[in-house]
Request: fold
Amino acid sequence: MGRRSSGNVPELVERARSGDARAVARLISLVEDASPLLREVMAGLVPHTGNAQVVGVTGSPGVGKSTSTSALVGELRRAGKRVGVLAVDPSSPFSGGALLGDRVRMQDHALDPEVYIRSMASRGHLGGLSWSTPQALRVLDAAGCDVVLVETVGVGQSEVDVAGLADTTLVLLAPGMGDGIQAAKAGILEIGDVYVINKADRDGADQVRRELRSMLALADRPEGSWRPPIVKTVASRGEGLDEVVAEIDRHHAWLTDSGELEARRTRRARDEIEAIAVTALRERWGDVHGRSELDGLAAAVVAAERDPYAAADELLATFTD
Ligand code: GDP
Reply:
């Protein structure tokens, strides 16, 4: 381990595919670092992907995402599934490599060789998590995960972004958090495929459910479209998670039958290609590595020697050389 020559990549890919946790971890680190080896890594991984069900877990801080994710892992393991957990922190530029390991609830699964747990931050590189999360998902998919849970950690406005990456998005709410109002604000009513009212052991869970149900009923859904169910859970006691898994499976079946799975995955690939292409363009223009083409053109616009459209044309013309 630790060698960075490209000769290492086929072997790493092979080991990751066979389920070697260290190889999986190493590949995800390459993703976090935006390593130049990724081109070769992705080429090696892609033929072995497409099997993993990607499930996003989102909701306000404190609602019980981490507890629910851990309980879901347990439920999926009982069903014999190999599970990946990717905790993404869009608000932090730092790697959270150790973060999940420190989270007590995840310790239940720390020694299970059929569970990969990893947290990830953008490390400030271009495109951030929109670029790196799909790549990390691909690693876990190729490693044979049947289900990958993508949990957002930290605070942020990124719930909707994470939903864009998932096949199925779980939106968690809980009583006593003012979620009814928050939900509408955050656009959460559009993104949920399955709604989970966690902390159902607390007063007010039924009230949250009623509010949510009437808000969802207002949505205009065409005939034949998915109607998001609402499930109550007590994640801290593992209650209701079997029903959540059943709803995830039911949604997956609907996605497959309706053609929506392919549509979602195509959208995801499109976003990923775009992010890679934009990163490549920016690198070429020197947005990443210092002064170049773009700086020269900017100076010309400021000096009133060019208009910005002409400058943009010139910039694009550098690609037809
Ligand atoms: P996250 O910030 O969304 O990841 O939330 P956590 O999973 O860290 O949970 C926040 C707090 O709520 C913790 O103290 C949990 O123990 C507690 N919690 C989680 N699920 C439940 C539940 O079903 N009932 C109750 N009463 N507390 C819960």
Notes: The longest strand covers residues 53-59. The mean pLDDT is 84. The radius of gyration is 22 Å.
